[in-house]
Design goal:
The complex is a heterotrimer of chains A (257), B (269) and C (291). Chain A has 257 residues and is mainly alpha-helical. Helices cover 71% and strands 4% of the residues of chain A. Chain A has eleven helices and two strands. Chain A is flat and about 65 Å long. Chain B is an alpha/beta fold. Chain B is 38% helix and 22% strand. In chain B, the strands form two sheets. Chain B has a six-stranded mixed sheet with strand order 6-7-8-3-9-10. A four-stranded antiparallel sheet of chain B has the order 2-1-4-5, with no helix packed on it. Chain C folds into two domains: 244 residues, P-loop containing nucleotide triphosphate hydrolases (Rossmann fold), CATH 3.40.50.300; 35 residues, no CATH class. Classes of the chains: A mainly alpha (257), B alpha/beta (269), C alpha/beta (291).
């Protein structure tokens, strides 16, 4: 089962066994306090996040993701904010005509902590949850089936569309389309490459609509589910605990201010 | 312009070796049909001819051009390639603009482009439809637009990749006619096809491939008569060849004319 | 008992002037295997969509006349009811993969999920359907990793699992290689042998000649011929209108004019052709007289 467009890592772990909603709740239970509670909490949430990463046995993939995606982005953001935020008086050092102040760096640090928490907690969800199960569980809880269909089919069909784009590229190159020399020529290559992709996709979409219609997609009967996505007592307890944590963190903020 | 392939090996980036030491020569003006099961390497082989793929080892020469030294766009002046799915090429607002795309890319002057386009449209019976949007045409005519687009490039060598898939008898006849005219113009025509009857009736040389190697290469009658070898690459002999064998004909027949001739001979003694 | 009845059916797609189907009158008995032949544009797909309810419910347009299939009337039943009784599969295997599911097993169960079949029953039906069509070994594969022939068999299984009363197939092997074609025809044969009513649009005349109960020739939206394979496929009318016919028929027709085919009836299969041509007189080694 190759899912090279999703992040899912097929493994056995306590996190993998949890219900998707629980992991989604975890994500929000990290994000809401990170953004709305006391500033000191945000960076501290890194701890439960790392615990979750190890509990899900996805440390390798998480590291990979962090190094390639997350860390470069937040590092960039940290530098940008530290240098360009016009706040604070305690100048640490100067960069050209910009003052890098302690207050700016603190704000920057808070911002990147929040972003880091947000991205990481969703990453944990995606790394430990099969997209089909996630969609299936959410649909059972009330998400419109059309929405789930869009997510699932996009994940699977995108690689196919890439392959099709490659074929179109080959076909047009074979007609002398120059995609290698001047920039202007490459700009002119856009229409012959995008045109067939778009038109071809329209045809495909209509046929696929017929196909899923033929499989009762618009049936008015209540849907059933092949896969059983278990929701255990443990799941429910964890979700309640997470809710309590969120309330406490928000309460703490109000109480402290 | 000859095509010379010397000891061609090709391995895809994912490590799969698709061609194992292919060597062959195709003379100018030959009509060649390539058959064999999916995965035999037919498309892989043919994509080396216009540079879409480069050899992992070995050499491919189109005339005096080594394909490793020329871009696909340049090789397109010598090798035209009609892809299997017409919809993978069509994007213009009308048929004549679409057909002009190839020759324009090749740098022909305006008058010559117009002449080439008109000629290609006549050959593919599209003259009356020249101002129609290709996507307003049925799949049958879209296929002809794709073919016209490549013919208009006036290349000495033309490759057809599965030209008859999904086509009805009338369109297959049109395509066969196009190939006949190309033969008269002494173009080299190379076709990959699963339609063995179409292959038998239009191509004098047949190459059968399996697992990245050439199983058989020679005169169509000879190749198509070798049922057992063809069966290993899931190719059934043409209908008339099978019938001829059943009736005990000495020679292998592949067209109606040959069949009737062999039948008369037998009848008349 | 006619399971399909079309009476004076004429249909125009939206924004078109020429009807795609004109005055179609046809009945199909339960268990019949009907092949529909005709040039591209003759109306084969439209006829298939009409039988499956997509004309007019999906495509809109103007439909006149009576369409009754498996007890449902076109004017009364909605599309989501039609699909319970009539299964539809078409040319392009890739576009029939829903994209909603990650394994073949789930893909096949997709239809059953949509119509609310209980989980245990679903599993049983999917396993049985896969056994029937011979794809049990593909159960855990991703539908997108399969060959065209395999995908088409998955599509067929996904439809058959819904237990339709009529199976409508629009050129199911047109885009497949010979192996895929063989696999798909194998599945269709299995279904017809089990008594499924099948209506199939096809170009591959040789196979039809061997297995169809009946052939309908469609031309410019009208039924040109309707009868046994033998009667339809050897008709001169087909030749006139440029239909594709098997080489056996075509060469025998030519041979007849040369006195080299002596039977009255033209052949439609290899067997018939071989038998017929074996009768063509040829002199024995001894007697080479005056004739």
């Amino acid at each position: 089962m190759s899912l090279d467009r999703s992040f899912f890592v097929p493994l056995e772990s306590p996190l993998h066994r949890l219900n998707p909603l629980t992991k989604l709740t975890f994500a929000f239970a990290m994000i809401i306090p990170a953004f709305l509670s006391v500033p000191r909490l945000a960076p501290a949430l890194v701890i439960p996040i790392f615990i979750a990463v190890f509990a899900g046995k996805v440390q390798k993939q998480y590291l990979n993701l962090s190094l390639k995606l997350i860390l470069p982005a937040i590092l960039f953001m940290f530098v940008m904010q530290s240098v360009f935020l016009p706040i604070g008086e305690t100048v640490i050092f100067q960069l050209g005509r910009f003052d890098v102040t302690q207050e700016a760096m603190q704000t920057a640090f808070l911002t990147i902590s929040r972003i880091f928490v947000m991205v990481s907690s969703f990453a944990i969800l995606l790394l430990t949850t099969h997209p089909g199960e996630l969609m299936s569980d959410l649909t059972r809880r009330g998400l419109p089936p059309q929405f789930a269909y869009v997510i699932n089919s996009t994940l699977q069909i995108l690689p196919q569309m890439q392959a099709k784009a490659q074929t179109i590229l080959s076909a047009q190159r074979s007609r002398g389309l120059d995609t290698e020399s001047t920039f202007l020529k490459r700009v002119g290559a856009v229409v012959p490459l995008v045109g067939p992709l778009v038109f071809g996709s329209l045809v495909e979409v209509e046929e696929r609509a017929i196909a899923i219609e033929a499989r009762g997609f618009t049936s008015t009967r209540p849907k059933t589910f092949l896969r059983d996505v278990p929701d255990t007592r443990t799941d429910k307890i964890i979700r309640w605990l997470l809710l309590v944590f969120v309330i406490l963190s928000l309460g703490g903020r109000i109480w402290l201010s | 312009m000859n095509i010379t392939i010397s000891n061609l090996h090709f391995t895809y980036p994912n490590g799969v070796q698709a061609l194992h030491g292919i060597s062959l020569t195709i003379q100018a003006g030959e009509q060649v049909g390539i058959v064999g099961q999916n995965g035999a390497g037919k498309t892989t082989l043919v994509r080396h001819l216009n540079g879409l793929l480069q050899p992992t080892a070995g050499e491919v020469k189109i005339g005096d051009w080594d394909t490793r030294k020329y871009s696909v766009a340049k090789l397109a002046s010598r090798v035209g390639y009609v892809f299997q799915n017409a919809d993978d090429q069509l994007f213009s607002r009308d048929v004549q603009t679409e057909v002009a795309f190839g020759p324009k890319n090749l740098g022909y002057p305006k008058e010559q482009v117009e002449a080439l386009v008109s000629e290609a449209l006549t050959l593919t019976e599209l003259s009356e439809k020249r101002e129609t949007n290709p996507y307003d045409l049925s799949p049958t005519w879209r296929k002809m637009v794709a073919i016209a687009s490549v013919i208009a490039m006036n290349t000495p060598i033309i490759i057809f990749d599965e030209p008859t898939t999904g086509q009805d008898a009338a369109n297959i006849a049109r395509i066969a006619n196009v190939i006949r005219v190309l033969r008269e113009r002494r173009k080299t025509v190379i076709t990959i096809t699963h339609d063995i009857d179409f292959c038998a009736e239009n191509f004098e040389r047949v190459i059968a491939m399996a697992q990245g190697r050439i199983l058989l290469d020679g005169n169509a009658n000879e190749v198509l008569g070798q049922e057992d070898i063809l069966a290993t690459t899931y190719v059934d002999p043409p209908q008339l060849t099978r019938l001829g064998k059943r009736l005990g004909f000495e020679q292998t027949v592949r067209t109606e004319e040959e069949f009737l001739a062999a039948l008369s001979q037998r009848t008349l003694g | 008992m006619a399971i399909v009845t079309l009476e004076n059916v004429t249909y125009k797609y939206p924004l078109t002037e020429t009807p795609a189907l004109q005055n179609i009158n046809l009945q199909v008995e339960e268990g019949e295997f009907v092949a529909v032949i005709g040039p591209n544009g003759a109306g084969k797909s439209t006829l298939c969509y009409t039988l499956a309810g997509f004309v007019p419910h999906f495509f809109k347009g103007e439909l006149t006349g009576r369409v009754e299939v498996a007890g449902m009337e076109s004017s009364e039943s909605a599309l989501h009811e039609w699909v319970l009784n009539v299964g539809l599969a078409f040319q392009n295997p890739f576009n029939q993969i829903s994209g909603a599911k990650y394994t073949v097993f789930e893909e096949i169960a997709f239809g059953l999920e949509n119509i609310g079949v209980p989980r245990e029953e679903m599993k049983v039906r999917v396993e049985e359907a896969m056994k029937l069509t011979g794809i049990s070994d593909l159960a855990d594969r991703s539908p997108y990793s399969l060959s065209g022939g395999q995908q088409q068999r998955v599509a067929l299984t996904s439809i058959l699992v819904m237990q339709p009363k009529v199976l409508v197939l629009d050129e199911p092997t047109s885009q497949l290689d010979p192996i895929g074609t063989r696999e798909v025809f194998g599945v269709i044969r299995t279904m017809t042998e089990r008594g499924m009513t099948v209506v199939m649009a096809e170009h591959k005349v040789e196979w039809i000649a061997n297995f169809a109960d009946r052939v309908i020739a469609l031309y410019e939206g009208q039924i040109l011929l309707d009868g046994t394979p033998r009667k339809v496929l050897t008709s001169d009318l087909l030749k006139e209108k440029g239909f594709g016919i098997s080489r056996y028929t075509s060469v025998a027709r030519k041979a007849k004019t040369l006195g080299l085919w002596t039977r009255e009836q033209l052949p439609i299969t290899l067997e018939e052709a071989a038998e017929g041509f074996a009768l063509t007189p040829h002199p024995s080694p001894e007697g080479r007289g005056e004739s």
